[in-house]
Design goal:
CATH architecture: Up-down Bundle
Pathway: Lipid metabolism
Cofactor: Fe cation
GO molecular function, one term: oxidoreductase activity, acting on single donors with incorporation of molecular oxygen, incorporation of two atoms of oxygen
Pfam family, one: Lipoxygenase
Oligomer: single chain
Strand content: 5-15%
Order of helices and strands: HHEHHEEEEEEHHHHHHHHHHHHHHH
Number of helices: 19
Number of strands: 7
Structural class: mainly alpha
CATH class: Mainly Alpha
Subcellular location: Cytoplasm
CATH superfamily: Lipoxygenase-1, Domain 5
Shape: globular
Radius of gyration: 22 Å
Distance between the termini: 19 Å
Number of domains: 1
Largest sheet: 5 strands, antiparallel
Length: 446
């Protein structure tokens, strides 16, 4: 895909098929701190927000985790990071269009609600501040926390509690390949004191820890299981949501594979309950990954075969499909810097009608920040030289005939889905390839 994808795909559609497709949700009631009115967004009186919300046509993206975060100083200049609220409408021609943007959480006279009808540079700057906020939300929540760090929790607990002869170990160990190594490198090269994210992102340093803490408090088991997450966000029937379409198919394929293997070894719920090794595995995850917070919905123990199957499906999906969805397209969307600025060096407009082209250029990051950002995103998006696609198991941990047959069926289903995704993509102006099984790594390895 061209590095100019960020120029091609409309602003609204990036919330569906860009690198952060998990934030958008259907809006049934406006937040109290987002006082959008009908006359703002429907000046001709042809529609109303209440009716459009009732029809399911209004969507919200809320970057509240970024509110009040201490921002970085880069090249001796204070940087700016907003916590916007974005309202979008599904149009009659099935497009998702932004209709209102508020760049700070608290309504105020100096915090206007920007609209598509505003002067060109007001509206463009508002969208750029949203895209910059999305960079931090994506990198720290959707990418680092919800794939890299969670995959590490699952892997460490597996190595600490489950012996190599155990079927769960055999099932999951290929899906931990390089995860600890890549996270070690990330801690040293990206988010350390001298790491590129720390030095060149608006949320680098102290702000990063604030955002990670807030994001962790919002992680739920539901949000990690794509069928539940799609339902909870109310986006089951949004058109052209290829992350959802491909992700749900992948979940079902992984689920069938996991179910076959688990049910081969566990004939009833009692056998699961009495397996002390898998109970230690989940207990360790609950305690050290989720701080023993029952409100997350994460199991504290396994009481049934079905519960174990779902959790293991989530673990494999997180390290393969979900990571690919939020990682592989980073350079496609961030290679065009104005589409995904790491940082912005001027505050947003406080009044309408004063922004100009010069304002825009003075707001965008310095050249060295842009270069560092593009180089980092290119490296993170690059397929590894010893890439192992989802479903390929060169080490052959299973030797019994039945589990090996499950693996063959798993591979065949993935190949079929890959063909269907490629066929669909031939008809798309901007193909969605990030969850094509052929391009999915078995684990968080990059």
């Amino acid at each position: 895909m061209s590095k100019n994808t960020g120029r091609k795909i409309p602003f609204g559609m990036q919330f569906l098929n860009g690198v952060n497709p998990i934030l958008i949700r259907r809006c049934t009631e406006l937040p109290r701190n987002f006082p959008v009115t009908d006359c703002m967004v429907f000046p001709r009186g042809q529609m109303s927000l209440a009716k459009e919300m009732k029809k399911g046509n209004i969507f919200l993206c809320d970057y509240k985790h970024l509110d009040g975060v201490k921002t970085n100083t880069i090249n001796g200049k204070k940087q700016y990071l907003m916590a916007p609220l974005v309202l979008l409408q599904k149009t009659a021609d099935e497009k998702l269009m932004p209709i209102a943007i508020q760049l700070k959480q608290a309504p105020a006279e100096d915090n206007p609600i920007f609209l598509p009808t505003d002067p060109e540079y007001d509206w463009l700057l508002a969208k750029i501040f949203v895209r910059s906020a999305d960079f931090s939300e994506h990198q720290l929540n959707a990418h680092l926390l919800r794939t890299h760090l969670l995959a590490e929790v699952f892997a460490v607990s597996l190595l600490r509690n489950v012996p190599m002869v155990h079927p769960l170990y055999k099932l999951l160990i290929p899906h931990t390949r390089y995860t600890l190594q890549i996270n070690f490198l990330a801690r040293n090269l990206l988010i350390s004191k001298n790491g590129s994210f720390t030095q060149f992102a608006a949320s680098g340093g102290e702000g990063m820890m604030t955002i990670l803490g807030r994001s962790l408090s919002a992680v739920t088991y539901t949000s990690l299981c794509i069928p539940d997450d799609i339902t909870e966000r109310g986006v089951q029937d949004v058109p052209n949501y290829f992350y959802r379409d491909d992700g749900l198919r992948l979940w079902e394929i992984i689920y069938r594979f996991v179910k076959g293997v688990i049910e081969y070894y566990y004939k009833n719920d009692k056998e699961v309950q009495q397996d002390t090794e898998i109970q230690k595995w989940i207990s360790d995850i609950f305690e050290h990954g989720f701080y023993s917070q029952a409100c997350t919905g994460v199991p504290q123990s396994f009481t049934s075969v079905a519960q174990l199957v779902k959790f293991v499906t989530m673990v494999i999906f997180t390290g393969s499909a979900q990571h690919a969805a939020v990682n592989s397209g980073q350079y496609d969307y961030g290679g065009w810097m104005p589409n995904t600025p790491l940082s912005l060096k001027r505050p947003p407009p406080t009044k309408k009608g004063e922004a100009s082209e010069d304002t825009l250029l003075e707001t965008l990051p310095d050249v060295n920040v842009t270069v560092q950002g593009m180089a980092t995103l290119w490296l993170l998006s690059k397929q590894s030289s010893d890439f192992v696609p989802l479903g390929k198991y060169p080490e052959q941990h299973f030797t019994e005939e039945t589990p090996c047959e499950f693996i063959k069926n798993f591979q065949a289903e993935l190949e079929d889905l890959s063909r269907r995704i490629k066929a669909r993509n031939t008809n798309l102006e901007v193909p969605y390839k990030y969850m094509d099984p052929e391009k999915l790594e078995n684990s968080v390895a990059l």
